[in-house]
Automatic annotation (TrEMBL):
Annotated region (Disordered), positions in chain: 329-363
Gene Ontology CC annotations of this record: chromosome, subtelomeric region; mating-type region heterochromatin; nucleus; pericentric heterochromatin; rDNA heterochromatin
UniProt-listed Gene3D superfamilies: SIR2/SIRT2 'Small Domain, TPP-binding domain
Protein known as: Deacetylase sirtuin-type domain-containing protein
Residues annotated for Zn(2+) binding in this entry: 289, 292, 313, 316
Family statement: Belongs to the sirtuin family. Class I subfamily.
One family name in Pfam for this protein: SIR2
Domain of life (superkingdom): Eukaryota
Deacetylase sirtuin-type domain mapped to chain residues: 153-453
PROSITE patterns registered for this protein in UniProt: SIRTUIN
Active site: 281 (proton acceptor)
Keyword Metal-binding carried by entry: yes
Amino acid sequence: MDLVPAPSGEDSLKTPVVEVEAVDMDQLAMSAEERALEDIPSTYETDSDDSEDWDTLSNADDAIQILRDDQIRDGLVPDACTLEEALGYRKRLHAIGKAAFVEETIVRETVTAKKLCTAFGIVPPAFLEGAPDEAYHSLLAIAISREFSRRPKLPQYNSIDDAVRLLRESRNIIVLTGAGISTSLGIPDFRSKDTGLYSKLEHLGLSDPQEVFDISVFREDPKIFFSIAKDILPTEKKWSPTHGFIRLLQDKGKLLTNYTQNIDNIEANAGVLPEKIVQCHGSFATATCVKCKFKVTGDEIFGEIKEGNVPECTACKKVIAEDSLKSQGLKRKRSSNGQQKDRKVSDDSSDEDDYEIPTPGVMKPDITFFGEDLPDEFGERLIHQDREKADLVIVIGTSLKVAPVAEVPGILPRNVPQIYISRTPVSHTDFDIDLLGDCDVVVSELSRRAGWDLKHHMIPDDEKVDITTVEGYESRHVFKVAGA
């Protein structure tokens, strides 16, 4: 859920890849509540009965419902804060700190804990309905801690002109990209309703569609992954206008690093240099045998993947073939550590159960599955090289729901401006400027306004773009092709 607190520093980048919405709620509740309660008065501490209520809440993923700002604005939750009130409470929290904020609100009883939860984007759970206001304190503690850990928006950046000026003036831009920059090429993203990859995986019989990228599931049955791998594998050496925009930043000497969550390796097709790319989740560019660790280029197994087959290791096959030719009255037995031992053939057929027919290993594309650690280069590059150099962050085409990459905006210095480009806004991270719409349309319009020549056959020469500002958000703008 959106309640994941944003860790800071290098340690937070060493955790395995995990879906933010799948974080264990018990662990989340304890860590967030402890941090929130460190600085607030003892009158805010909950009694044992309330703690038991929270135990029930922390064990029920469905109990916590996230309240988006547009839902607050539209008044969809009874007795909730207005959007103006919510923004005011958030600003006040960051201005005076947690302890003073709780003193000013809860201790002085200027607002109820139940209502204040909504200011920080949490719908009060139904099972607490009718309970005394103190029952909401534990939930509010998490909400306050979550909000306080968020990077606050820089108020001086709001308009399209501000975004264009940042592009022109910045010299070390970090670009963080996700699946949304490849959808115009026919490669599906993961979470879009009806069209995303996860919405099309019901036929696999998984309890959760994202298990298709779970390393334990892959080890148990690699056929599940390879049955869909062909759908996310690029079939041509092409790239989108957004990939071209990243290349343009590179050509202008402005690109510090492109941190990409994509595994399609399309950035290379656009000419982004290897030294400018960090493949946060690996890519299809290479593959490694799960048994003997033999490595090949992705091109060598693409044919098998496109057929929906499980690619097998040619090195393993060669060893197996050589072993089969050694007809010396010996049979090879596999030991518990995976190595083979020679053993004389026995006439007793019952001994056949002791032997394992050798099989070649599976060639696993070098992408990072859920449960695997990210490449060392990710944390090393971000913490020790890019964090202090970056003067602008542009996040494009990702909902930032997979940790630890989702934590990058919060790890970078808070004075570095951040721009978000995607179809829909995110509620768990505060960007300085939100540019909403088709990624290709947004970057082409930004390039035009910056006076840059972004050429791509998918960008019409006469393209006109209408831009509107979202009501209630001076820094949130919607891009739409005129007449579309």
